[in-house]
Amino acid sequence: MTRYDKDRLETASEMAFRLIRKDIIAGKLAPGQKLRLEQLKDSYAVSVSTLRETLSRLASDNLVLAEGQRGFEVAPVSITELENLGDLRLLLESHAIGLSFNAGDLDWEARVVAAHHKLAAIERQLLRGDLARTVDWVRFDWEFHQALASACGSAVLMDALSSTFDRFLRYHLLAKSFRGKPVTDDHRHLLDLAMGRDVDGARAMLTQHVRSGIDHVIKSGLIA
Q1: What number of other Cβ atoms are within 10 A of residue 38's Cβ?
Q2: What pTM does this model have?
Q3: In the CATH hierarchy, which fold is given to the domain comprising 3-74?
Q4: What is the pLDDT of residues 190-209, one digit of tens each?
């Protein structure tokens, strides 16, 4: 295999990983769905061997179940896992924002303000009824929370938070769970607390924010 072929293979593998992960989180690949390699290779334009590698990576992220000789399926969902993911997210994000608020400089403040500006713009569209932007809202939601924690100084902590956040938001997308004005108010309050470097206030707000989101998903009745 030439160096060019190897680089192209690695690019295809990364692309397949990103797209399949996105489709699982967005619910396009449904919980419990069997992942047939012959079907997926056409949908994602990669080889069966690349798919096996990709699905094994997603299994390590707990988004796919590897069933030995029986193949792969999308990981199921449950209220118990949702609640556990909420607890883990709070543990990681609360620690990260404490470090970040104390270490953040003017560049950090600019990142937080810019991320909130994009998030607030999408939320105004959603409040007007444009629910087609829900997937964009999820991405900007993560960018805002990521910006809040981004000065924590730990790549390991940020990677763990990113993985947990993705799995947590999967439930919101499955439940079509945009909570309306209360969630936009939460984000504005978090912005103000970040600019004021109020760690305790932000942690309390974050706890309320995450718990309210969990309750909203459960009350939707779309997660068995």
Answers
A1: 8
A2: 0.85
A3: Arc Repressor Mutant, subunit A (1.10.10)
A4: 999 999 999 999 999 999 99
